[in-house]
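We include the pair:
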Amino acid sequence: MAVHEPPHRSSGFHLPSFRRNLAGSATGPYTSMSVATASVRDYAFASLRLLSGFVVLSAFLDKTVGFGYATQSGNGWIDGVSPTEGFLRGVAAGPMESTFHSWAGHAWADWLFMLGLLGIGLALIGGFALRLAAVAGTAMMALMWIAEWPPAQHLPDGVASMSTNSFADRHLLYAVLLITLAAVSAGDTLGIGRHWARLPIVRDNRWLR
């Protein structure tokens, strides 16, 4: 009796499989390069955040104590000198000139301005609540932009305003920088952003992120 044997399968000819090679290459030099690029980007944004925080906190401390930079010793907030009076009284152009003059030196304006500087500076240094810092900072920069009013080429007395263009100035750059730092979660590197995001109140209210 003939014995029926199952047909013997020949290995035949197969095209080389690239799946394994691709899987291996996924952890190869290209991935290493991507990780390195991401790392450089994260540290670059973190550096921008820390430097920005240093600028804002330094301004707060100088205006509070009077370190002798923009605010001379004895002219600090703790000495009873308003941190907003000089700037707002000096507004000489723009649609809110009279409004800024009426705000100058008021306690509520001083407190809002100084608490804004303190809160934004701490958020940037610590890497937490960057979205709140971006909103508050953008509002502050917008008001300061209106106060300096770059579109004006000359002041009412005919003196050149020293503006170099009709739109962009450092205040707009700072506002865009704050928004960018919040958008890329710059507080996750060299900051407490990740820990902050895990807090229940922050998880439930993403705008606090």
Notes: The first helix runs from residue 19 to 25. Residues 1-26 have pLDDT under 50 and may be disordered. Residues 82 and 107 are 8 Å apart (CA to CA). The chain is about 55% helix and 0% strand.
